[in-house]
Amino acid sequence: MYRTHSNGELRLENVGQEVTLAGWVQKTRDKGFMIWVDLRDRYGITQLIFDEERTSKEMVEKAKTLGREFVIQITGEVIERVSKNKNIPTGEVEILVKELKVLNKSLTPPFTIEDETDGGDELRMKYRYLDIRRNPVKENLIFRHKVAIEVRKYLSDKGFIEVETPVLIKSTPEGARDFVVPSRMNEGQFYALPQSPQTFKQLLMVGGLDKYFQIVKCFRDEDLRADRQPEFTQIDCEMAFVEQEDILNMFEGLTRHLLKEIKGVDVADFPRMTYDDAMRKYGNDKPDIRFGMEFGELNEVAQHKEFGVFNSAELVVGIAVPGGNAYTRKEIDNLIEWIKRPQIGALGMVYVRCNEDGTYKSSVDKFYTEEDLAKWAEVTGAKPGDLICVLSGNAHKVRTQLSALRMELATRLNLRNPAEFAPLWVMDFPLLEWDEETNRYHAMHHPFTSPKPEDMHLLDTDPGKVRANAYDMVLNGNEIGGGSIRIYDKATQALMFDHLGFTPEQAKEQFGFLMNAFEYGAPPHGGLAFGLDRLVAILGGQETIRDFIAFPKNNNGRDVMIDAPSHIDDAQLKELNLKIEL
Ligand code: ASP
Question: Which of 15, 199, 23, 169 is closest to 100 using CA atoms?
């Protein structure tokens, strides 16, 4: 037996017992004739004492050879500590060591394995197995496990069954770029790794499984933005014989369950907001509604005066920053610089100070009277002491810019309280989205999403106006899940592919299997997928998903620990028919 107890277990009531413990040497304190060692494992830390008088000189000598992160096994007696440590659960006892065995030595670790470490990101990723010994990382992985268990519990109780779908599938041009895998046995042909099990879960519905879920790895070969991983995990779900309402209720239930079980939080309200409203009120399809600062559209009250910039703008829109009148001129200038950075790209910002005495002072006083500005305050909901920030220009662009400003200011003002959870559904997304690059419409969600029946007639005349039966679950300003009611008849699916610019041959070649299946009694169905990594990070009150992934990739999509991706040798390339002979 390697151990009788873990290192997080022993208490005063164990005093007098002989125990065997195993673990890593966290640190040693050498007093010459007495040595203390902190022994660590997943469960905690137990203090060991080696004492010349009470055991032997040899024991102490042996203890002196121990280095950080050595793996040892000891046997000894639990004794009461003279100076107790109230900060750890085992802090009232220590072990008087009688036998010591070094199970394995360790090189000096490249960073300190404590809650606060001196290791930088890359170094910790390279030695991730050491990083995982640290409490914050270990706790995150345990936390992720708990979330996954609760997901499985809830869905299983509701009659969902977990089904595994293939990882080697067919490459399709829709959506993001695929990772591909060369087939050795089929010369010149490739598999793709799934971006999601979308078509398979729909086929499971045709197969009559009725309620499916899977906690599943998905792969997207996208240019990596901060905090994106090329492989990530989804809680993927699908249901048959449902309407949108059934799906919203089911997964509202899952979200409530998780918030309750994991965070002890009861969500009172689960608001629903249309995509159009979200864009108008927050400039964003994933609004953080934990705080106000809703957009006020100022066209009516700010245009048709002398100010040309506003007059020529498609949209003039502002937000009231609570307490923002306290900003100095310099602080406001910094804000303007911030919003003019290329990442945000605003051309400038007009501002109005709302003085405590009810008067206003703006950067465009030349053009507007106090009465005008009072109207701006009314529209944006600004109170005395606030600052109104106003942007103007192309509607879509200024909304995006003002949304970025809103989030930045909320962060600076500490309005984004990680202990507060404000989920909502954003619904009625546009079915199609115009893509400037390819000059054609793309499916905003994916090509299997059903248009709203009442908008079908617009498909030919005004495709951009057609709304979809698609929905996103948003939590604290993050999209944590999204899905749709699906098309389930061949004709509509063919029509959809047609609108997406597929020829009938291309549609057949890419998605013939699905359209065929639709001819054999496909039931009405729909579903959604949650991003597990992000969900766990948000529930854990943190922003970076990498901290909740055991072995994450860096911002260049590399695993710096195993050094992947890597070159493969010529023989292997040849075998895969990838070697181009010159
Ligand atoms: N497959 C979709 C996605 O990965 C989710 C869904 O429509 O169920 O975003």
Answer: 23
Q: Among positive and negative, which fits the CA dihedral 88, 89, 90, 93?
A: positive
CB of 527 within 6 A of ligand 1: the answer is: yes
Q: Look at residue 7 and tell me if it is in a domain.
A: no
Structure tokens at 494: 């063919």
In 3-state terms, what secondary structure has residue 251? helix
Tally Cβ neighbours within 10 Å of residue 510.
Answer: 18
Residue ranges of E strands in 52-171:
71-80, 93-104, 161-162
Is 199 a member of any domain? yes
Name every residue whose Cβ is closer than 8 Å to that of residue 569 and which is 6 or more positions away in sequence: none
Is the domain of 442 the same as that of 511?
yes
Which residues are 389's β-sheet partners? 319, 351
Amino acid, res. 531: G
Task: Identify whether residues 501 and 531 lie together within a single domain.
Answer: yes
Range of the domain at 303: 291-415
Query: What is the atom index within ligand 1 of the atom nearest the CA of 484?
Result: 7
Q: Where does 246-321 show beta strands of DSSP type E?
A: 272-274, 296-297, 315-321
Residues 170 and 144 in one domain: yes
Query: Do 400 and 449 fall within a single domain?
Result: no
CATH at residue 87? 2.40.50.140
The order of strands in the sheet holding 161-162 is 161-162, 211-219, 231-240, 525-531, 478-485, 470-475, 423-427, 272-274
CATH of the domain at 378: 3.30.1360.30
Is residue 206 situated within a structural domain? yes
Task: Please name which of 391, 394, 401, 429 lies closest in space to residue 283, comparing C-alpha atoms.
Answer: 401
Task: Read off the pLDDT of each residue in 549-557 and give the average, rounded to a whole number.
Answer: 94
- The CA dihedral of 441, 445, 449, 451, to the nearest 10 degrees, is -60
Q: Do residue 481 and residue 541 come from a single domain?
A: yes
Element (H, E) at 181: strand 180-182
Residues 384 and 313 in one domain: yes
Q: If you measure from the C-alpha of residue 236 to the centroid of ligand 1, how many angstroms do you get, rounded to a whole number?
A: 7
Residues 6+ away with beta carbon under 8 Å from 264: none
- C-alpha 37/C-alpha 288 separation (Å) is 48
CB of 205 within 6 A of ligand 1: the answer is no
Q: What is the pLDDT of residues 433-485, one digit of tens each?
A: 998 888 889 999 999 999 999 999 999 899 999 999 999 999 999 999 999 99
Quickly count: other Cβ atoms within 10 Å of residue 467's Cβ. 19
Model-wide pTM > 0.90: yes
- Choosing from 216, 236, 514 the residue with most ligand 1 atoms within 8 A of its CB, the one to mutate for a pocket test is 236
Residues 86 and 36 in one domain: yes
Please count the structural domains in the chain: 3
Cα-to-centroid distance, 272 and ligand 1 (Å): 19
The answer to whether residues 411 and 288 touch, using CB atoms and an 8 Å cutoff, is: no
Q: Are residues 67 and 183 in the same domain?
A: no
Q: What is the token pair recorded at 478?
A: 């993050």
pLDDT surpassing 80 at residue 95: yes
In a domain? residue 483: yes
Distance (Å, whole) CA 30 – CA 40: 18
Confidence of residue 582 (pLDDT cuts 50, 70, 90): low
